[in-house]
Write a structure and sequence with these properties.
Blueprint: H1 8-29, H2 33-36, H3 40-43, H4 46-51, H5 60-79, H6 83-108
Length: 118
């Protein structure tokens, strides 16, 4: 029995909807800072590092490393034609995004300085 497949268009639409929802949630959670400084999206993955206990005084070097899991996950998910594998990877993405939102919230309340200054 061959597993059901999922089209590239469906994979992209589902994947982008998770990111769009995350951007919307982050915009609300970090308002008005997100409106004044939209580059906060670049620093988004550091929320996971913050949840892991890292104090991010100078996160520039860490931010690129934090994007790697998202890029790898995206490549594997969008390349997968198997519906089950895709949705398993999608669940991993959604879990990471939710944890990251929590980490960003913690990061925003860490101290008196702007947490994502360039």
């Amino acid at each position: 029995m061959k597993p059901e497949s999922i089209s590239a268009g469906e994979r992209c639409a589902i994947w982008l909807s998770a990111w769009a929802a995350t951007i919307g949630i982050m915009a609300v959670r970090t308002y008005p800072f997100s409106v004044r400084a939209p580059y906060i999206l670049f620093w988004f993955p550091t929320g996971l590092a913050r949840l892991a206990g890292y104090q991010l005084d100078r996160p520039r070097s860490l931010v690129w490393l934090c994007w790697v899991p998202y890029l790898v996950l995206t490549l594997f998910a969008l390349a997968s034609r198997n519906r089950r594998i895709f949705f398993l990877l999608f669940i991993v993405l959604c879990t990471l995004l939710l944890l990251n939102i929590g980490g960003c919230t913690v990061r925003m309340h860490d101290g008196p300085s702007e947490p994502y200054s360039i």
